[in-house]
Amino acid sequence: MKGACWANWLGFTLGYRYFPMATGWYLKRQLAANLDLNDEKRYQKLRKEVLKSKSMPEKDREIMKDESTLRLFLRTSRQSFSQGSDAAVEDGRLMCMGFGFRVEDIRPDLPVQLWYGKQDVAVPLNHGVQIAARLGGRAALRVVDETHLSIWANYGEEALRELVRSI
Fold first, then answer.
1. 55 pLDDT band (50/70/90 cuts)?
2. What distance lies between CA 12 and its chain's CA centroid?
């Protein structure tokens, strides 16, 4: 988790694995999980939160200022937390466990593309560097000067074109 923001580092390093109840408590207190408010109130609060955020990278803040993006986030988060935070906690726990195979054992004939943003503090570049190293040069590691949200806003179509081209 080298390069991750403190919340992601803490959640994925310790929280989901060892303290799932505390992680669930934390998630329930986030605006995305506050389903007691109607969508318009959630939108207004989230917009205010985004505008005042000091920890959000500027490129991510610009993307989240877009009304349609914010409303999409709120709709998807309503679905994600519609039955509470247990599913989100379980998802995080599973991401922190072994997947039952080693990255090195991925078939050599399968094309692997790794797209990472230099400024991503949610899924830091170190992840891609480590995966690429474990694949011994069999992966195309693409590093761009982007953040967690801006990489897909600015390179999503290119990534999909490259994926389709490679299969």
1. confident
2. 11
